[in-house]
Amino acid sequence: MTSPSAAVLATYGRSGFVEGVHIGHAVVVDASGDITDAWGDPDHALMARSSAKPMQASAMVRLGLELPSRLLALAASSHSGEARHLDGAREILAEASLDSSALQTPPDFPLDPIVRDAWIQSGRRPTRIGMNCSGKHSAMLATCRLRGWSTHDYLDPGHPLQVAILDEVRSLTGDPVTEVGIDGCGAPVHVMSLRGLARAGSAAVLASADSPERRVADAMREHPEMVGGADRDVTAFMRAVPGLLAKDGAEGVYVAALPDGTGIAMKVEDGSARGRQVAMAAILLRVAPDSASRTVLEALASIPMLGGGRPVGAVESPLRSPTD
Fold first, then answer.
1. What average pLDDT is seen over the chain?
2. What span, in angstroms and rounded, lies between the C-alpha atoms of 116 and 73?
3. Residue 1 above 80 pLDDT?
4. Residues 6+ apart with CB under 8 A from 250
5. Averaged pLDDT, 142-171
6. What is the pTM of this model?
7. Quick one: which of 238, 233, 242, 237 has its CA closest to 291?
8. CA dist., res. 274 & res. 316, Å (int)
9. Domain for residue 324, yes or no?
10. Phi and psi for 8 in degrees, rounded to 5?
């Protein structure tokens, strides 16, 4: 829902002319959850979409799910559909004596365009395991098997698994979370505040090392290639900024947290992935430690716009510090 308080998070220009803008909301909180910077409405209500996956995975660990760190990172992923991702999902399922037929993800091609095109060229069709949420769904099924719960209805909001996930989301965000919808993958999706999403990221990196949320955060930071993929900005961000936790979400959502507890969350109102990327890069250029690769962040902060096959403009963000 468009808010009158929305701010410009990114612009796209061509030949010196600003052709359009991406508006939305972004917030930065400190380790105490207090706002240190904001653009638009820091309490904007949003469906966190896949940016909530770290919280969903945390709930599963709290329920007893034990996975190697690379597979725990996959459980919190929106993966690109690379072989390591699909093999990992199969591994999670096999440990629970299940296979991909148990998944209730909608059949889909891999998210990565190169991998997708290779599938199409080889005659492969959309599959449930090829869908970018299959890591999360595999972990959900494994958790149900572990707890002795039914698997045919694991996506029902009233299922014990989904009730536990809702409790986890409420706990980590600090929000009441009274509205629950259905995400693109078929799982419940929760409405929360932007500030609450940022608080959840901060809480995860600051939690004790043996806590479920910290275990998920550490797995994601250890295996960023499992969270996204070889050519994904979420993976590049975590590689560029030491100790950064980051998770992208559909419809222009992003959450990130630095090791010191600085939490960042944003929502681009038109759902733009390009606007989301450059805005996150701009904020990280403001708040990331000196150890971060500014070269990588600078590259992510600008997406070329082409004319006649050559760069004539760019998608950029006004959120950058004046000193950048």
1. 96
2. 22
3. no
4. 49, 50, 183, 184, 271
5. 98
6. 0.96
7. 242
8. 9
9. no
10. -75, 115
Q: Nearest CA to 147 among 212, 66, 55, 54?
A: 66
The closest alpha carbon to 51, from 204, 158, 153, belongs to 204
Q: What is the CATH number of the domain that holds 179?
A: 3.40.710
Q: Evaluate whether residue 1 is within a structural domain.
A: no
* Token pair listed for 232: 């994904």
φ/ψ of 230, rounded to 5, equals -60, -35
Place of tokens 């919280």: 55
Q: Please choose, from the candidates 162, 200, 156, 186, the residue with its C-alpha nearest in 3D space to the C-alpha of residue 48.
A: 200
29-87 tens-digit pLDDT: 999 999 999 999 999 999 999 999 999 999 999 999 999 999 999 999 999 999 999 99
Structure tokens at 194: 């932007």
Question: CA-to-CA distance for 63 and 164, rounded, in angstroms?
Answer: 8
Give start and end residues of each alpha helix (H) in 174-272: 194-206, 212-222, 224-227, 233-240
Closest by Cα among 162, 244, 249, 256 to 200: 256
Q: Which residue has the tokens 């043996």?
A: 210
CB 152 within 8 A of CB 186: no
* Helix, strand, coil percent values for the chain (each to nearest 5): 40, 20, 40
Whether 322 is in a domain gets the answer no
* Residues linked to residue 192 through DSSP beta bridges, in sequence order: 46
What is the length of the chain?
324
DSSP code of residue 174: -
**How many domains is the chain built from?**
1
Taking the C-alpha atoms of residue 92 and residue 196, their distance in angstroms, rounded to an integer, is 30
Domain containing 95 equals: 7-316
Give the amino acid at 299. Answer: A
Amino acid, single-letter form, for residue 5:
S
Q: For the chain, how far is it from start to end, CA to CA, in angstroms? A: 32
Examine residue 191 and state whether it is found in any structural domain, yes or no: yes
CA distance 66 to 60: 9
CA distance 116 to 134: 15
